[in-house]
Design goal:
The chain is of the alpha+beta class. It has 13 helices and 7 strands. A 4-stranded antiparallel sheet has the order 1-4-2-3. Helix 8 packs antiparallel against helix 9. The longest helix is centred in the C-terminal third of the chain and has 124 residues. The radius of gyration is 70 Å and the shape is elongated. Keywords: Coiled coil. This is Band 7 domain-containing protein.
């Protein structure tokens, strides 16, 4: 601590002059009293007596005026007071010992009365009073500071417990004991760590370089061995293939299809050429079958006598030809699927050979690693690692094989489903066509009957209309003839009346005669206005009567 503890400050107070008559009141100046915070208290000395000021005394109180000394005491709780001393070491140096105490002022008056103004120096003297403490570091060098820490800490703690520090008005307890690391030791240890790190990095770099050189040498040797083994394997495969070709050529004979299959298996033709050639062969066979079918259709069509039977037979033949085409298409698709499956099997065989070769290489690598290891524990660890790697490869291969089998099974199921669907579709198509033929025949018969009925009814309607027109023509002609005769008679009567050759009685007789023939005329004036009705007027009148006829109107609506 930079300031003293627990007495922070203390001053001697000058006597205050007596009060004069009519003079100012006696008081002290604030500059004479030390100022503190809320954790400080003032203690005044009046002769041999001490008085504590808790902030209630004023500058003109009797205690302040009569006091000769004043002290400012720190009453904070658990104030840390460190004490640092040096302890000699074995290598003629010294350990830095720091002992920290926690102090709390219980009675500020007792502190001032006891004279414990600076507790730090008092506690330092308390620690130094333990004489054996200066002998604790003589068994250790500065580099052995950790061993010295345990012994010194235990000794100081035991001393504080056996003989605790007791002072008037202050509660003092031991808080911690520390042996500080000397700067020289810290620098030395850091230097050692840096050098060790650099040495380890250099060693690791050299070790890795050696491992890389050794691995490169092993790889070159293994590559040379692998190249020789590959050459031997190629030679053996060539001899086996030549024997296989000889046997295949002996078994093929004169069959062109087998020769084509052998050429495809030998790689002399590509998959596309093989498929094209097979399709061409299938096309030739299909054309021959179609020609035969066409000849049979022509012969059967020529032998049929009725047109309906010929149509039905032609439809059957056409359906049969379409079925053959679908069967041929289905066979071609299955051929292509078989070729793809053969290609997948060949790739799978090649991959199996590569995996077998990889396993052989892994086994030889394990043997070399096992021979190069020095300790049994490392051999076991490497063997376990290699075994686990081999098991993982086996599991991966098994998984791939299972997935291949699943894919093949799925492809077979798809092919079976496609075949079944084709058969079901063929059956549905056959039923639909039979229904369409039956429906067409039935519809054709119904249409013929409906058409005949319609034509019969139309003929009857035309006949009735013709008869009605003829009758109306006859009626119109008779009416026209009567009108003409009547007009002639009326004209004669008018001329006779103009000449005065006929009397009134004779004219009335003639009119009555005319009215008896035409009762619809009741006015004499109408006789003079009668004119010959032309054919157009009678035709319009006839058409209007036709529209009034209900039977004819119903026929027109039909």
């Amino acid at each position: 601590m930079s300031a003293a503890y627990p007495v922070v400050a203390q001053r001697t107070l000058e006597p205050v002059p007596s009060k004069k008559f009519l003079g100012p009141k006696r008081t002290r100046s604030l500059d004479d009293i030390p100022q503190g915070g809320s954790n400080h208290r003032l203690v005044y000395r009046i002769g041999n007596d001490y008085q504590l000021d808790n902030g209630a005394l004023t500058m003109d109180s009797d205690t302040v005026l009569e006091a000769t000394h004043v002290s400012l005491v720190d009453i904070s709780r658990d104030v840390q007071v460190p004490v640092r001393i040096e302890i000699p070491s074995k290598d003629a140096d010294a350990f830095q010992l720091q002992v920290t105490f926690t102090c709390t002022v219980n009675d500020a008056v007792q502190v001032v009365r006891g004279g414990t103004h600076d507790l730090g120096s008092v506690l330092k003297a308390y620690v130094r009073k333990h004489r054996r403490i200066f002998e604790l570091g003589l068994d250790y060098d500065l580099t052995e500071i950790n061993l010295a820490r345990r012994k010194i800490s235990a000794q100081v703690t035991a001393y504080a417990m056996a003989s605790p520090p007791v002072y008037l008005g202050v509660k003092t307890e031991l808080e911690s004991v520390e042996v500080l690391t000397p700067p020289s030791v810290g620098n030395y240890q850091r230097t050692l760590r840096d050098q060790a790190g650099r040495h380890y990095i250099d060693f690791d770099r050299q070790h890795r370089s050696q491992l890389m050189r050794s691995a490169a040498t092993d790889y070159e040797q293994q590559e040379e061995i692998r190249s020789q083994r590959h050459s031997f394997t190629l030679d053996a495969n060539t001899r086996d293939y030549q024997r296989y070709q000889f046997e295949q050529q002996r078994e093929i004979g004169n069959n062109p299809v087998d020769a084509l299959k052998y050429a495809y298996a030998a790689g002399e033709v590509s998959a596309k050429e093989f498929a094209d050639e097979m399709l061409r062969q299938e096309q030739v066979e299909r054309e021959y079958a179609q020609q035969e079918l066409r000849r049979a259709q022509e012969w059967e069509q020529a032998s049929l006598e009725r047109g309906h039977e010929r149509e039905a037979l032609a439809e059957t033949r056409r359906w049969e030809a379409e079925r053959l085409d679908r069967d041929e298409q289905w066979k071609i698709e299955h051929k292509q699927i078989d070729l793809a499956a053969a290609e997948r099997d060949r790739e799978h065989a090649a991959k199996n050979a590569e995996r077998e070769f990889a396993r052989e290489e892994l086994r030889r690598a394990r043997e070399r690693d096992h021979a190069s290891l020095e300790s049994g524990q490392e051999r076991e660890a490497l063997g376990e690692k290699r075994r686990w790697e081999a098991e993982r490869l086996d599991r991966d291969e098994q998984w791939k094989i299972e997935h291949k089998q699943i894919d093949l099974a799925a492809a077979e199921r798809q092919e079976e489903n496609a075949a079944k669907n084709a058969e079901r579709e063929f059956a549905r198509e056959e039923v639909r066509r039979a229904r369409e033929r039956d429906h067409a025949s039935l519809e054709h018969g119904r249409e013929r009957e409906a058409l005949a009925e319609t034509r019969r009814w139309e003929a009857e309607r035309l006949d009735r209309a013709e008869r009605w027109k003829i009758e109306h023509k006859q009626i119109d002609l008779a009416a026209t003839e009567r009108n003409q005769k009547l007009a002639v008679q009326i004209e004669i009567i008018r001329k006779l009346a103009d000449r005065g050759a006929i009397d009134t009685m004779a004219i009335e007789h003639l009119v009555q005669t005319a009215l008896s023939n035409h009762p619809e005329m009741s006015d004499l004036e109408e006789f003079t206005n009668i004119e010959v009705v032309d054919t157009t007027t009678e035709t319009v009148r006839s058409e209007s009567r036709d529209m009034d006829d209900p039977e004819l109107r119903e026929e027109d609506e039909h």
